[in-house]
Design brief:
This protein is mostly beta strands. The chain contains one helix and 38 strands.
């Protein structure tokens, strides 16, 4: 197989590392960055044009991906949230908070349902019904950070991986809990990325899939997965792909090509059939953290910690007009998108309380009083004015007694307040006088 690849554009896209990139069904390219933003791009006349910058995360954005029809975009951040955006308007439709409060490293839409999977530093995989904004399933079997997961193209299988090197196969339905199959050492030094081939077969007794993984050991691996009477995952073939670390892998939409990127500053394109290297793309000055094929398979985007986004064309003679299509939608995706919009309209900010000089770590209500604990080492008390319906800080607030961050506050049934701090102390407060009852 011969392959001609040439760079057609690049952009100094972000002010910090580019962490991920993804093409929508309609040719829109999204990039995420440690600079806390997500940017949307279109390719017109073989040039990149920025069309939107999405802001809403408080810390770096680790991953972004489009919904199957391209109407929604999900972004995962170190601030422990996953935000779902309306691609057309740029509106923040909802914010899913990881229950643990830990960083979210990856998120993926299920191709055939309203489910979204998120995972990260808490070793958990959370599956959400995004139409209802409900957590419907939690997978707890990993014991290490999860950097990557992927749904099979038919939406029936979920493949998860972790920094220890394990890959685990699950039924994607929320009412299933048992692991179907797994590999303990898919990559010696941890798995960085997993993805399914779009090519799969479904039978009465057996379904067959193919998936690619890459890891810190520098290898790119292909796996065969089977579900049915027996559930298995087995190594098909592997090749040493990148010096140092293989950081990202992606299948082209036809399943014929695979792209990988790594810590050696290069991108490689492989034949999926035998993992023969067809092309090596150079030009980035630092780690190439992400790569993604367009849905047409004609364009490859790469992003790096050098902050540069590059776009490559695999065949100069092909027409790129399909990268300028308007956003379309399926009926099912339109349905849960409408539900998100309606819920967003119902949820309005009533009041913003200011006073703490650092992060607010905890809050608790009791008998009309709101207590908040902060990294500024104080506890503040707020009470609603019955006439104006506005919360105001009480006369005894702030409560000062801790020397380090207050990470938890909680009222007892009798109205006393206990606060816990990183200074190792618990303080029991009288909220009416502001005095310490007990330390």
């Amino acid at each position: 197989m011969s392959l001609n690849v040439s760079k057609i554009g690049e952009s100094d896209a972000h002010t910090s590392d580019i962490t991920s990139c993804h093409f929508s069904k309609n040719g829109i390219l999204a990039t995420s960055s440690s600079d806390q933003t997500i940017k949307l791009w279109v390719l017109k006349n073989k040039e990149l044009h920025e069309i939107a910058t999405l802001k809403g995360h408080k810390y770096g954005v680790n991953f972004c991906c489009f919904s199957p029809q391209g109407t929604l975009l999900a972004s995962a951040s170190t601030d422990s949230t996953t935000i779902i955006w309306d691609v057309k308007t740029g509106d923040n439709l909802c914010c899913l908070v990881q229950p643990s409060g830990f960083a979210v490293r990856v998120c993926q839409f299920c191709p055939q349902s309203a489910f979204l999977a998120t995972a990260g530093d808490d070793d958990l995989v959370c599956i959400w019904n995004i139409g209802e904004k409900e957590l419907v399933r939690t997978i707890r079997d990993h014991e290490a950070t999860i950097f990557s997961l992927a749904f099979s193209p038919d939406g029936n299988i979920l493949l998860t991986s972790d920094t220890v090197g394990r890959c685990k196969v699950w039924a994607a339905q929320p009412n299933h809990s048992l692991m179907l199959a797994g590999v303990e050492e898919a990559h010696d030094l941890g798995v960085n990325c997993v993805c399914f081939s779009p090519l799969h077969s479904s039978g009465v007794l057996e379904n067959a899939y193919s998936a690619a993984t890459c890891g810190n050991d520098g290898f790119l691996a292909l796996w065969k997965l089977k579900t049915g009477a027996e559930n298995t995952i087995s190594l098909d073939r592997r090749v040493f792909a990148h010096d140092g670390s293989a950081m990202c892998v992606d299948f082209a939409a036809d399943g014929v090509l695979i792209a990988s990127s790594g810590g050696d500053k290069v991108v490689k394109i492989w034949a999926a059939e035998d993992l023969a290297c067809l092309s090596i793309l150079e030009g980035h000055e630092r780690y190439v953290t992400t790569c993604a094929f367009s849905m047409s398979g004609l364009v490859l985007a790469t992003g790096s910690s050098d902050r540069i986004l590059k776009v490559w064309i695999l065949d100069k003679n092909k027409n790129l007009s399909n990268h300028q299509d308007n956003v379309s939608s399926s009926r099912s995706e339109s349905y849960f998108q409408l539900k998100l919009v309606n819920k967003r309209q119902q949820n309005k900010v009533i009041q913003t309380l200011t006073g703490h000089s650092s992060d607010v770590n905890s809050c608790h209500f009791h008998a009309g009083i709101l207590a908040t604990g902060s990294a500024d080492a104080t506890v503040r008390l707020w009470k609603e004015d019955k006439t104006s319906k506005v919360f105001q800080e009480t006369a005894v607030s702030p409560l000062q007694g801790h020397s380090y961050s207050v990470y938890s506050v909680h009222f007892s049934s009798d109205g006393s307040l206990v606060s816990a701090s990183l200074d190792g102390s618990l303080i029991l407060w009288n909220v009416n006088t502001g005095e310490k009852i007990k330390t």
